[in-house]
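Example 3.2
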Amino acid sequence: MTWGVVTNIVIHNKGYDDNWFWWGFFFGFIAVIVACTKPQAVYYTSSVDSSMQKRQPQPGEWECAYCGTVNAHFYTTCTSCGLSKTEGIIKAQEEESKKAQEEDMKKARERKAQELTSAQAIKEFKDLLDTGIITQEEFEAKKKELLGL
């Protein structure tokens, strides 16, 4: 009887809904070995699984950190994206850091473009000063304005 219970627990931990109690009861340790060699069950999202998404997890359930799908407690991998709990957390953190890096790069490019634009404008005003179109005071005021001083 113990082998039947152990075999059934192994099968459920692998993500299968099958009842393997009787296999374990009759074949003992052999059934446990066969159950251990079965691959993890991977379930893909279907219209039935969509009801599990976008809701708060109930006691015993867990939410995938990567895709947000709520999974039953006996699933070791997400039913939507196929990632384990830890893989989902790692992948979500990687995505978040990648977005933060892209945002930082975008801000840096915008700052550099603004600096170049300011430098070009100052150069143009310097040319106007050299030709005598504007005065030194006007040039200094415009330079301070462009540099943000």
